[in-house]
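Sequence, structure tokens quoted for completeness.
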Amino acid sequence: MKLFSALVSTCTIALSSIASALPEGIEHIQTLEGIEEYRLHENGLRVLLMPNEGLPVATVMVTYNVGSRNEVTGTTGATHILEHMMFKGTERFNSGDSSDYSSQMERIGARSNATTYFDRTNYYATLSRDYVPLAIELEADRMRNLRILEADLASEMTVVRNEYERGENNPVRTLIKEIYAAAFVAQPYGHPTIGWRSDIENTSPDKLRAFYNTFYWPENAVLTVIGGFDHEATLESIKQFYGPVPKAPTAIPVVDTTEPKQLGPRRLIIERSGQVGVVMTAFKAPEGAHQDWAALTLIEQIVGADKTGRLYRALEDIGKASATFTHAPQLRDPSLFMLAAYMTPQATHEETEAIILDELKKLISGGVTEDELARA
């Protein structure tokens, strides 16, 4: 009992010390597995810190809770194009004096980039721990002060078009895109993250500005700092640069469309020139926070892993496939669980599909072995 009391007292002292060291207006929410969560009172910005004092570098990342699922017909691709425009400068930091984000990151030797997906857009930089305050300042500035100029958009559209064409020229990526479009007739996962070609071509600074002004606000973002950094100074920088950023003037729209029940199987055929055929099967899967997701991840490995999975062995042993893969993104809303096989010239699409489905039937009827679970 005395030991328990001592532990409780120690824990209370530690939490009290965290609270007393916080800048005014920053609240400590919880610490879990070494990750500290905070929130700014003024604007709702969520902050995650994972310090490792022994490292000479840190990564600063801002994740916005906006992705292609937040787009509608006419604006598809806006999230991705806006991601590109975020590197074009702000009123304060821009290419006029080489103070824009990209120029400053290059000068200090940082590695920076961004990605867009169904549910989120994230911007990150890995840099010397001494430059963490600079990265925080630049990210806070472009959260609300981005310049979206016609000339910058025109120059960036060449890059976006090239990305789009690379996807169109990849048969497997095209097949995945078409499967999502067929699987989701109501929920916005049905349109590709990069957008539809006509929407991309008809984007404009005004459309992008409207999208930016709808979703790029502190209460819709998470700032993450991980690695080596001065803990107290980092919280002070967050308070200094993000504290003045206002909350959105109106409620940020949420996606409440749910996909209606599918009434039967849907099939599609993509015809492309080339010698390698692909068969892909897709099944509706639960959202990433669902209690069954852990089991689904194990099944993905046991059945679909290349070289070692059940599917590969069933097809490769009889010379019907050269490779297999799975695609099961962990998303906010229910998505898809996909199994695919690259066929050999000796295989047909029909028999390959039959073998894939047969392996899934065996899984349902017989389950998995202890050895398979251990390997997964």
Notes: The domain at 278-375 is CATH 3.30.830.10 (Cytochrome Bc1 Complex; Chain A, domain 1). The two ends are 42 Å apart (CA to CA). The chain has 13 helices and ten strands. The mean pLDDT is 93.
